[in-house]
TrEMBL record:
Alphabetical GO biological process terms: DNA replication, synthesis of primer
One matching Pfam family: DnaB_bind
Organism name: [Clostridium] leptum
Top-rank taxon, per record: Bacteria
DNA helicase DnaB-like N-terminal domain segment(s): 109-204
PANTHER family registered for this protein in UniProt: DNA PRIMASE
Protein's name according to its UniProt entry: DNA helicase DnaB-like N-terminal domain-containing protein
Keywords, alphabetical: DNA replication, DNA-binding
Length: 234
């Protein structure tokens, strides 16, 4: 509290620097700066204490200062909500994704991979069932495949797969993504039937991805020779 108070004191003093508080313009500029500072405080008591002092300095009612502080706090919350929404949109769409750059081009597959991986983490006793339905190589995106492989390998070795336990295998940014997978799973609910559907989606998307891949030189040559052979046979 004392450290917090010292910091606030310093910021308020700095806000007054260069301002003539005997003039209306100086009072308004000072009040505006102080309101922005108080809006960052978590403690309502601290806000009330400093608001009272500031009100006396600029010769207005304390309630007027607090009204401006609350207005500023609402504005900050709206701004944070918008930012959080944009982050969620970005994560869901996969655009600009440094952790899983393949996601934006394989959105349906990546979302199913994430949901399936979260299910296995939350239900390690079901891993054997899942491994009957899908293999790591069926995954479309490299990052999700690596997470799934790591999780299932740990389960086979009877090692825990909680987020805390996985930190040794993944970076902080990657762990943030895994935490996001688990959060979405907790909101959406999860069942074995849903996991089975995720496996089907992943395999379908894997097949579609293969069809979209450009032919390698030897494959193209082989296909051309086969077409030519068929033409000659007619």
């Amino acid at each position: 509290m004392e450290a917090s108070g010292n910091d606030v004191e310093y910021r308020l003093q700095k806000a007054a620097n260069g301002l003539d508080l005997s003039q209306p313009d100086g009072k308004i500029a000072y009040l505006t700066a102080c309101v922005s500072i108080l809006a960052t405080l978590d403690s309502k008591i601290e806000q009330e204490v400093y608001a009272g002092r500031i009100a006396a300095e600029v010769e207005i009612e304390k309630s007027s200062v607090m009204a401006q502080v609350e207005k500023q706090m609402r504005k900050r919350r709206r701004s944070q909500s918008v930012q959080e929404f944009r982050e969620i949109q970005k994560a869901t769409s996969g655009f600009g994704d440094a952790v899983n750059p393949q996601k934006s081009q394989n959105l349906r597959a990546a979302n199913a991979e994430e949901a399936l991986t979260a299910y296995v983490i939350n239900n390690p006793d079901m891993a054997n069932n899942i491994e009957k339905w899908i293999r790591p190589e069926d995954f479309v995106t490299d990052f999700n495949r690596r997470v799934y492989e790591t999780v299932t390998e740990r389960i086979r070795e009877n090692r825990p797969v909680s987020p805390t336990d996985l930190t040794q295998d993944f970076s902080e940014q990657e762990m943030s993504r895994i935490a996001g997978m688990l959060y979405k799973a907790s909101v959406g609910g999860e069942t074995l039937e849903a996991a089975k559907d995720y496996c089907k989606i992943i395999k379908q998307e894997k097949s579609s991805a293969k069809l979209r891949e450009p032919l390698k030189d030897d494959e193209a040559k082989r296909l051309f020779e086969e077409i030519q052979k068929n033409k000659l046979g007619k």
